[in-house]
C-alpha cells in the first residue's frame, strides 16, 4: 500500500512538473518576441538590405577578411543547422544570429535545466522547463529579427537526419555524445554538407571543420573507431567551466562565417584541429591533421555505409559506440540507500570515493574520502585511512560515489585486491541519497 502511495505521489509530482513546463512554453509563445521590431526600418534601400541592416552589420562588413557587402549577402542567403542548443550551441547561435545568417535551424529534444544556466547563455532562469530550441528562438528573435529561425524540439535520429540536414548549407555539431557525432558525420557526408564540429570539457576544448567541399577529412577519417565508452566523460561527470566551452562555441560561429562568406577555398583549406586550454595559461594550438582516409567507411570511394543502411536503422549508433557497464558487482555486494540508512552498524566505515571537489560540495556524516581513480592509487595504503581498530576480515565497509558506478569499481578493488571481506556498494550513490533519504543533500 505504501509503495502504491509512493508511486502515486511520484506520478503527481511528475505531472505537476510537466504542467509547469507546458505553462512556461505557452507563456513563451505569448510573450512579445521582439520588443522593438516596430522600430526597425523595413524598407530595403537596395536589392539586399535595409538601412537597419547596413547599420547593424557595418562593423563586420568593413573587415577585409569578411568579404565586404558580398560576405554579408552570402550570410543573409545562408542556412545553418545548429544541432544541440547547449554549452556549444548557445554561444554559436548567439554570434551566428547577431552576424545575420539568414536562416537558422535548431534541433534539441532537451528542456532547460537550472544546471545548464552557467554556460548555456541563451537560456534564462525563466526558461527552465521549456524546450531549449524554443528558448533559443525566443532570445534570437529579440537579438536579431532579420533572422528566420526554425526549431525541431526532438532528437536527431537515423530516420529524420537526412530530411533535416539536407535543408541547410552548414551543419554545426554542438552535441555531446560520440553516437550523435557519427550520425551527424555520416548523414552530412552523404548530403555533401560541411560540418563545424567542437567539443569541450572541464577547462578545455577542441574544434575542427569536417567534410570541407567533400574534399577534407570527415569524423570517421579522424576516428574510424569510437572511443571506449568508459573513457568518455560528460559535462555531468567531469564538469565544465562556462567561458571555456563558450569560447569553443564562439569560434565555431567564426568558422561557419568563414565557410559561408567563402574565405576558405579548395586551395587554402588545410585540415586542422584547434585545441584550447583555459588553464594554467590560456593556449590555443592548431594541429595539422591527416587528409581524407582512402579506406574511410563513409567518405572514401570504398565507403560501405549508404543512406539506405542508415535510414533502415541497420546502423545503431548507440550500440556502435557501446555503453558503460553499470552492473559491475554481483548483487550480493550491493545495498540500496534505504538499506544502508536503516541497517548500517555504527562501527562500519563509509568510504566516499568521489573526487575531493565533489566531497567538498556535500558529504554524508562520518564518511572518509579517498577519491577513486582507475587504480585507486591511494588504496594501497588504505589502512592509514581506516580507524585503528578496523578488522579487515569482518568489519563492514560501505562504498559511495556520485551515481554508483565508480563505487562498484572501488568496491571490487577492495574485495579482490586489498583483502577487505565485508564490502558493500551503495546503489545510486549520493545522488540517490538526495532523492530518497535527504533532499537537503544538494544535487550538482
Ligand atoms: N541526437 C540529438 N538530437 C538533438 N539534440 C541532441 C542530440 N544529442 C545531443 N543533443 C543536445 O546537445 C546538447 C549538448 O549540450 P551540453 O553538452 O551542454 O549538455 P547538456 O545535456 O545540456 O548538459 P549536462 O550534460 O550538464 O546535462 C544538449 O542540449 C542535448 O540535448
Ligand atoms: Zn572520412
From TrEMBL:
Cofactor(s) needed by this chain: Zn(2+)
Comment on bound cofactor: Binds 1 zinc ion per subunit.
An example Gene Ontology CC term for this record: cytosol
Molecular function GO labels: adenylyltransferase activity; ATP binding; identical protein binding; metal ion binding; thiosulfate-cyanide sulfurtransferase activity; URM1 activating enzyme activity
Residues of the Rhodanese domain: 344-442
Active site per the UniProt annotation: 235 (glycyl thioester intermediate), 401 (cysteine persulfide intermediate)
Locations listed in the record: Cytoplasm, Cytosol
Key words, A-Z: ATP-binding, Cytoplasm, Metal-binding, Multifunctional enzyme, Nucleotide-binding, Nucleotidyltransferase, Transferase, tRNA processing, Ubl conjugation pathway, Zinc
Predominant location: cytoplasm
Family: In the N-terminal section; belongs to the HesA/MoeB/ThiF family. UBA4 subfamily.
Protein name, per record: Adenylyltransferase
Organism: Hyphopichia burtonii NRRL Y-1933
Highest classification ranks of the organism: Eukaryota, Fungi, Dikarya, Ascomycota, Saccharomycotina
Gene this protein is translated from: UBA4
